[in-house]
Amino acid sequence: MVRAAVLPAIGSPLEITDIELPDPGPGQVRVRLAAAGVCHSDLSLTNGTMRVPVPAVLGHEGAGTVVAVGEGVTRVAPGDGVVLNWAPSCGDCHACGLGEVWLCGNALTGAGAVYARRADGTDLHPGLNVAAFAQETVVAAGCVLPAPEGVPLADAALLGCAVLTGYGAVHHAARVRAGETVAVLGVGGVGLAALQAARIAGAARVLAVDVSAGKEALARAAGATDYVVASDRTARDLRDLTGGHGVDVAVECVGRAVTIRTAWESTRRGGRTTVVGIGGKDQQVTFNALEIFHWGRTLSGCVYGNADPARDVPVLADHVRAGRLDLGLMVTDRIGLEGIPTAFANMEAGRGGRALVVF
Prior knowledge:
Helix 4 packs across helix 5, helix 4 crosses helix 10 and helix 7 runs parallel beside helix 8. The protein is globular, with a radius of gyration of 20 Å. It has helices at residues 40-46, 94-97, 153-156, 162-173, 189-200, 216-222, 234-241, 257-266, 289-295, 309-321, 327-330, 340-349, and strands at residues 2-7, 15-20, 28-38, 56-57, 61-69, 81-84, 116-118, 123-124, 136-140, 144-146, 181-185, 205-210, 226-229, 247-252, 267-275, 298-301, 331-335, 354-358. Helix 9 (289-295) links the parallel strand 15 and strand 16. The longest helix has 13 residues, at 309-321. It is an alpha/beta fold and 359 residues long. Strands 3, 5, 6, 9, 10, 17 and 18 form a seven-stranded mixed β-sheet that branches. The protein has a six-stranded parallel β-sheet with strand order 13-12-11-14-15-16, with helices on both faces.
């Protein structure tokens, strides 16, 4: 038996309880978690914004140590440190054939499987494939990547989602160039990664926007040169700070219609607006045909930072080892499983950066 945070039904509170994990089957790996990050996507799964089969063990950003491997697994062995990859690419679908592995059509098929049981025999699903809100988990071999040397295993958990997403949004989706001006809207875990990524890319100015004035020091430590407390005049404030032109790139990390619209209006003529935040179907954003023509801006979505984890995690590790990327900076709360509901409440209230469940 291992302890886990179980979502019994959409809209229900998490239950911290014992679950029974099977031995790893063919092509599977059992991992003892060192840490798991609490991501806004986990909150979106609890309230139904994103759908998963329930009951489920959530948590998709984690790292740990291999305990056992099933038949046919050769890429890792017991004792190896690994980073969990919640969206493994199949290599065979249309998107994978195009090299766009972050859009793999089969990446989440494992989330519908039964991977464990509660003590009462109730079947459990693995959230977004990896079920990291537990002391141990069993995943497909494709869901593990070798943990990079020189990076503490608990910190490496953040590489599995927040850092890949924030870094990828800046480097792969928005393709920020040296000397450009970048605005990052939303200073949570992904936003803090995006701020650091903009600095690494050589942005001349990095403007951070958040509803909380209390996050300014955190944002500046991550690389922000300017800080704006969100209001109904945020777009005007950002244009004022850039000589009336607007920023070259706006990265939206919230997923709300008003924030997406603000990011768009903050972007200069011919600039790029990249939407990273995951919003609900009720978040409708409207544009008129004339403004699309006149402003010449590019508006693009961004899935998992348009990243290839196998390619990008080693790159991120190099930045960490060189001191360019500070994973510890992103963590504002280190908690146990029992602290996840409070971490969710803090997210909804706009408090703090990343909460990290440490086992």
